[in-house]
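Dock adenosine-5'-triphosphate; give full complex structure.
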Amino acid sequence: MAMILGAEDANDWFYKGEGAANLVLGYCGSSPALLGKVLRVEKIQKGATRSAEECEVLTVHEKLVWAAIGELVESTSKKVIQQAFVTTVLNPLLGTEHMDAGMYVSVSSEFLKIIEKNVHNKRPAWRVDAAEIDLRCDSALLMSDHSIFPSGASKEGSCISVEIKPKCGFLPCSDFISEANAIKKSVTRFRMHQFLKLHKKEVSQLSEYDPLDLFSGSVERINLAIRSLYATPQNNFRIFSNGFLIYGGLGGGMDSIECEAKKLQEMKKAAEDRTKVLIRRDFGIQLDNFLELVSEAIFKSGMLNQLLATQKLDAIDIEGAIHAYYNVIGQHCLVCESLDDASLLHRYSLLHSLSLEESLKIVREYLTATTAKDCSLMISFRPKEGGDLTSNCISLRSSNQHFEYKANYIDMDIKPLEKMVYHYKLDQKIVKFYVENRENGGSPCDFDGGAENIQI
Ligand SMILES: O=P(O)(O)O[C@@H]1[C@@H](OP(=O)(O)O)[C@H](OP(=O)(O)O)[C@H](O)[C@H](OP(=O)(O)O)[C@H]1OP(=O)(O)O
Ligand SMILES: Nc1ncnc2c1ncn2[C@@H]1O[C@H](COP(=O)(O)OP(=O)(O)OP(=O)(O)O)[C@@H](O)[C@H]1O
Ligand SMILES: [Zn+2]
């Protein structure tokens, strides 16, 4: 970690976006080593009480879970573990071509303080309320900016990229899913979660997107999914022109709940118009053709096949994995404790009779799958002028134009073990809400089932 970013470097970084856990900055300075890079800075929930040291190291039980994976045995620092997680766990599953583990660089607390001040006005208010840059961090992740091609290679203004957060692409079929939750086997988690998000005003309308289309392996259905993502982008779809966001929301969905419906429609229409103009200007094609280009690239890259296989490592669903979790942490199972269904209890007793090794494997695979269900893809395009058509080229049948593309996964973070309890509660809450409210489109008035209210 030779590079150190100090106060004098802070103004070279601009706000690019954020998710729940990290804030991402683009580089506008002149250092050749940093051109074309982004810096991913960790955030901390407001009011969080964990000490800096607790945040930095794996818990005793996390060490157990990840101990079986070669390199990870040695590491106790989360940053080292994160890098090893990508190279040792994810690369064999997803290949190396589309992965970027990045590298950690040192940052001073002055640097972070200035950044925090500089980006404040750019951040969505609800993200500001939820979390802030963790000023205790002494490093941040430096990665390639996957919304552009490496500098020098592309003619100015000619790169358009999309970011897609595909979420879970399959229906679970685990025998450990209770009869009361059988709907999970026929309706996607994404669809059911939409109803709860609408009720909680986290989104302004139900998404048209169906992950089963995107992961279908059929180019026609992939195109249907891309059109739906474009119609209702939420936090699942963004478009960038030359690295700058032109369509979709910063740090979340485009349909920020802070806006009234009419204003939202106007903003969406303006973003659509701008996007169409830029696509026509830079690529000489209509929006429909661009969305076709995106679909073809997803189909051709085969990335989603590998991602789906990784997601399916969650073979017994959280309703099964949660029992393995309690085996791992060596505590009495709170889920079984709250059940009075003898047949279910019998099924779960099979899980509680597994060896520690078997339980660790279930938990490890569950956590790996969770990362694959929450990551995003970034695909960048530029017109291909002359020369041979390489394997990374798409030819648009409709206009006989050729485009080069590159695709990368982003947000490959390892998930904390303790989050499994939250996942279980959220899962129960999503299904309960959907079952009770699917008839009325997801906007009832008397649902109080916060994840924290589910009894276990
Ligand atoms: O549980 P989910 O499916 O809502 O996923 C969470 C995401 O919500 P969304 O994609 O909007 O539904 C959530 O995204 P948002 O904050 O809603 O943009 C995070 O990605 C969260 O992961 P982490 O806390 O950053 O590690 C995600 O949590 P994990 O489930 O990946 O732990
Ligand atoms: N390498 C990258 N190149 C370009 N843009 C990036 C890169 N990494 C992240 N971004 C942008 O920053 C945003 C936030 O990054 P990221 O998804 O890693 O945050 P997160 O907090 O981990 O997300 P989540 O809420 O899914 O956990 C992304 O949605 C994307 O627009
Ligand atoms: Zn149990």
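Observed: The mean pLDDT is 90.
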